[in-house]
Amino acid sequence: MLYHFLFPLAKYHTIFNVFQYITFRTIYAALTALVLSFIIGPYLIERLKKMNVGEVVRKDVLTNHLSKEGTPTMGGAMILLVVTVSVFLWANLTNAYVWVVIFVTVGLGAIGFVDDYSKVVTRKKGGMRGGVKLASQVAVALAAAIFLYHINISTVVTVPFFKDVAVDLKYFYVPFAALVIVGASNAVNLTDGLDGLAIGPMIMAAGTYMLLAYLVGHVKIANYLHIIYVPRAGELAVFAGAMVGASLGFLWFNTYPAQVFMGDVGSLSLGGALGTLAVITKNEVLLLVVGGLFVVEALSVIFQVASFKFTGKRVFAMAPIHHHYELKGWPEPKIIVRFWIISIILALVAISTLKIR
Ligand code: 57M
C-alpha cells in the first residue's frame, strides 16, 4: 500500500522515487516483519499461555522432550500475520504473482490452523485426518498451479548445473508444480521437531529465493546469467524478504530453549510459500538444493518407513533424522546448529549454480 500511495508522490518530490525500487522495498519488508514480530511475540506467547494452547508432547522414546510439554504452540499464526501485513505495506499489489504466494501461504496456514486447533484446543488425538489434510493441501496447491498455467507461466523445467537440460512439461507442469508446493510444505513440517530446526534453514532458503526472484525478474541480469527471465517475478523478492524478517523474528522466541513452537499453521504455510517461490521463479529443481535439509528430513522418513515395511528393520534409530541424532546422545543445540550450518552451505551451493552450469 505504501508503494501505491507514496510512489505517485514522486512527481512532487524525488525522494518518493525510492518506493519504486524492489531492493528498497524488500529490505523494509524484512525489517517491518522483524520489528512487528518483536512487538507481537511477547504478547502472543502470553495470550497462548492464558488460552492454554500448549503442546502435547509424545511420552514414549524421546524423554528429553518431556520438559517441552505445555510450550505454547501455533506461533506460526504470528508469522502469517506479519508476512501478510508487511507484504500489503511494501509490495506492488497489482502483481498477480504476489497474490498467488499469499493465497498458498494463507491457504496452507488455514489447514495447519485447523489441524493445530483440533490437536491442542479440542484435544482430538492426532488432529485432522491424514487423508483430509493431504487432500486440502493438494487442492490449494493445484488451484495455484492451474492459475499460474492460465497466466502463461513457462512450463519448461531446467536442471541446476546442466545448462542444456530443459524439459517442457506442457500441462503436466500443473501436477508437477502442485507436487513441489505440497512436497515443500510437508518436508518443512517434518523438520519442525527441535527448537529452531525448521525456522533457521527457512531463513536461508527464503533469503536465497529472495535473491533469485530479484535476478530472474531483471531482464538484463537474467540475460547476462543465461537464466530464464520471468517478467514481474522480481516483486516476489519483497514477499521473500518479509518471510526472512518474519522467520528471524520468530527464531528470536523459538531458539533453544523455545518459548513457543510454530505449529502446523507455521510449518505448512512457510513450506508452501517456499515451494511457490521455487515454481514462479522457475527454480523448481533447485529447491532440492536450497531446501536440501528439508529434503533429507523427508527422505529419512521415507527410507525408514520403506525399510521397516519390507525388511522389518529400521535404517535410523528414529526418523526424521534429527531424532536419530538425539537418540545417539547429541545435545539438542548441537544438532540444531549443525543442521543450520548445512543449510548455509546448501544455500551457497545453490547460488553458485548461477555461474556453474
Ligand atoms: C511434525 N511434530 C513434532 C510443534 C511443531 C511419519 C512420521 C515421521 C511423522 C512425524 C510427525 O508427526 N511429524 C509431524 C512433527 C512436534 O512438534 C509440533 O508439531 C509442529 C510442527 N508440525 O511446531 O507444534 C514435537 O516436536 C518437538 N519440537 C521442538 N521444538 C520446536 O520448535 O522440540 C517442535 C518444534 C513437539 C516437540 O517435542 O511436541 C513431533 O516430532 O511430533 N513423527 C515423528 O516425528 C515421530 N517419529 C516416528 O514415529 N518415527 C517412526 C516412523 C513413523 C518413521 C520411526 O522412526 O520408526 C516422533 N515424534 C515424536 N516423538 N514427537 C517419534 C518420537
Hetero ligands: Muraymycin D2
Helix content range of the residues, please? 55-70%
- Beta strand %: under 5%
Along the chain, the helix and strand elements come as HHHHHEEHHHHHHHHH
Number of helices: 14
Kindly give the count of domains.
1
Low-confidence stretches: none
Structural class of the secondary structure composition? mainly alpha
Number of strands: 2
Major β-sheet strand ordering: 1-2
* Major sheet size, sense and barrel closure: 2 strands, antiparallel
Shape from CA axes? globular
Mean pLDDT: 95
Give the terminus-to-terminus CA distance. 39 Å
Kindly provide the radius of gyration, computed on alpha-carbon positions and rounded to a whole number of angstroms. Answer: 20 Å
